[in-house]
Each structure stands twice: as structure tokens, then as C-alpha cells.
Design goal:
Layout (H helix, E strand, L loop, with lengths): L1 H26 L2 E2 L1 H20 L2 H24 L4 E4 L5 E2 L3 E9 L6 E8 L11 E6 L4 E9 L4 E12 L6 E16 L9 H4 L5 H13 L5 E6 L11 H7 L3 E5 L9 E3 L8 H15 L2 H5 L3 E3 L2 H11 L4
Parallel strand pairs: 3-9, 12-13
Antiparallel strand pairs: 1-9, 2-4, 4-7, 5-6, 5-8, 8-9, 10-11
Helix pairs in contact: 2-3
Length: 320
């Protein structure tokens, strides 16, 4: 019966206890298991000394309390006056790892030891990966680099870096947050395409060009680009008689040449209700086509509704 009651008590108060412990750790200190054990022993010795009036129990209780107080003061001092600076994060493609570099500076005259660095990453980038810095010498700067794998494109933003320590005795843990804004850009994956039959056929349809050239040859007005002197072998039907009579020599009309356009526009219909996975696949396909060699050599341009595209981007980007 008692284990069931303890289990129910733990399940009911688990979340509030975690919240209280988190507040104590970020605002002051939270005792570790060994710290709570030593604190319990100190209280036990003090109560026993009060009942038995034994001096050595008072001494043991005082020593334990002094050790706890010293550990608390030293743990708080380890996190003071540390300067945190973040380096710019280079953009990567989905599937590659983000390289996150943080510079820690110790302007004090005492070294800092056993610091746990934890970046407050967005949930879509996965759980934070703590890095341990064993020693930060006095007046020195050290860089800590973390490799974070990426799976989906997006613009990820987060604001803080957490430093946590229990040094030097491990009886108390403290955590403090430093403001260090970060913006990580993850581009969509680009497939290494060498050819695309749909794009390869662009410009090969000669029927449109032949029709336009035939219309140009048969036209007599409205398509004149300029006039030039008549040369031997030019067709008589292209002679502009009014200008020829004005200048006293034959003037020939130069006509516009109609050719089919070679521009490629890659567009996504963001107004449709896309499933998330299918939309990501469409973005990968569009990016791969954009970097395809025949498209890259032409005047290709991505297209889409700006307002809807921005709303889609906002949904993809992550903020803590």
C-alpha cells in the first residue's frame, strides 16, 4: 500500500517539483543528491547533539554545514563575469551539420573549471548537446564548437546560451543564461541532376519558329525594325518605296526576327493545401531544377506568391 501511495504522490508532484528545481537552479542553486545527503546528515548530527549534548556531534554538524556553504559560494562564483560571444553560423544544405561556435572569455583573475555549455536550440534541430569545458584560464578566451545535424530546411532562430556547473565539490548545481542571438539558415537539399527531359526539349519545337518566320516573311507592315540601302540579291518585296522615293535610292526594310523564348520559370502553388512531406519534396525538386546546368545557364527564376510564400516560410522557421 505504501509504495502505491508514494508512486501516486510522485506522479502528482513530479511536474511542480521539476518546475521548482528549475527555478532554483536558474535563480540560485539546487542541491545535488550528495548535497542533500550531506545536508540531511548535518541536520541529523545537530538534532542528535541537541539531545545528547555531545560536543563532537556539534563539530560534525558544523563541518558539514561549512562544507555545504563553501560549495554553494564557489559554485556561484564559477558562473560570474563570464563573457559569451557567438560566431556567425555559416549556411548549410539540409542533411549537413551546422557548425556552431561559441567564444567564452574569463576576464577575472581566477580560472573557471568544469563548465557545461548548453545551447538553447529549437526543437526542430533536436535536443541540445551539452559541451564540457574543463578549464577556462584567467584572462583567456576559448572556443567551443558544436556540430548539429539538420534534416529539414528553414531559418532557425534562438536567443540564449546556458552555462551550468557544479564545481568544485559537486554539492550544488547552478545555471545561468547569456543572451547570444543566433540565426541558422538551412537550404533545401539539391539533388545532383545531370539532365531533365522536360527542360531538354525546350527550344527544340521548330513548329512555332517556322510559323513565326513565315508570318514575318509574309508581313508587309508593322514589323519593320530599320531601313538600309538596297544590296544586290535582296528581295524586291522588302523595298520601302516611299523612303526610296524620298532619298533617291532604294531603301530596304529590316524586319524583326521572331524566336521562341528560352526563359524557365520554376513555381510552386503555395495556395494549395500541401501535406508537409509533399511540400518539402516539391521544394527539393524545384531547387534541384534551378541548379540544373541548362537552367542555370538560362535566365531561370523561381516564382511564387510573396505573401503566401512568406507565410509558408514563417511556418517552417523555428523560434524558441
Amino acid at each position: 500500500m505504501l509504495p502505491k501511495l508514494l508512486h501516486r504522490f510522485y506522479r502528482r508532484w513530479k511536474s511542480p517539483l521539476k518546475t521548482i528545481a528549475r527555478l532554483l537552479e536558474t535563480r540560485a542553486l539546487v542541491p545535488s543528491y550528495s548535497g542533500m545527503l550531506l545536508g540531511s546528515l548535518a541536520i541529523f548530527f545537530f538534532v542528535a547533539a541537541s539531545n545528547t549534548m555531545a560536543g563532537w556531534l556539534y563539530v560534525m554538524s558544523g563541518l558539514l554545514l561549512a562544507m555545504l556553504g563553501l560549495a554553494a559560494v564557489l559554485s556561484v562564483g564559477m558562473l560570474r563575469e563570464i563573457q559569451v560571444q557567438r560566431w556567425p553560423i555559416p549556411p548549410v544544405t539540409a542533411g549537413e551539420a551546422l557548425s556552431i561556435t561559441i567564444a567564452l572569455t574569463n576576464p577575472t583573475k581566477r580560472p573557471k573549471v568544469l563548465l557545461q555549455i548548453q545551447d538553447a536550440l529549437p526543437k526542430k534541430l533536436g535536443l541540445p548537446r551539452p559541451q564540457v569545458l574543463e578549464l577556462l584560464p584567467a584572462g583567456a578566451t576559448q572556443h567551443v564548437t558544436t556540430q548539429v545535424p539538420t534534416e529539414r530546411r528553414g531559418i532557425y532562430r534562438w536567443q540564449t546560451v546556458d552555462l551550468r556547473t557544479g564545481a568544485p565539490l559537486g554539492l550544488f548545481w547552478g545555471k545561468r543564461s547569456w543572451r547570444a542571438r543566433a540565426i541558422a539558415t538551412v537550404y533545401p537539399e539539391v539533388l545532383p541532376l545531370s539532365r531533365c527531359p522536360l527542360i531538354d526539349r525546350l527550344g527544340r519545337d521548330q513548329s512555332l519558329q517556322m510559323l513565326q518566320n513565315r508570318r514575318t516573311q509574309d508581313a508587309n507592315e508593322g514589323v519593320t525594325r530599320s531601313l538600309r540601302p538596297y544590296r544586290w540579291g535582296d528581295p524586291i518585296r522588302l523595298v520601302h518605296w516611299r523612303s526610296s522615293a524620298k532619298h533617291g535610292e532604294l531603301r530596304l526594310r529590316e524586319l524583326e526576327t521572331m524566336t521562341s523564348g528560352q526563359e524557365v520559370v520554376i513555381a510552386l502553388d503555395t495556395a494549395a493545401a500541401w501535406p508537409s512531406e509533399q511540400f518539402e519534396a516539391a521544394v527539393i525538386a524545384a531547387a534541384s531544377l534551378y541548379f540544373l546546368r541548362p537552367v542555370a545557364n538560362s535566365s531561370a527564376s523561381p516564382s511564387g506568391p510573396p505573401a503566401q510564400a512568406s507565410s509558408r516560410a514563417n511556418k517552417t522557421s523555428s523560434k524558441p
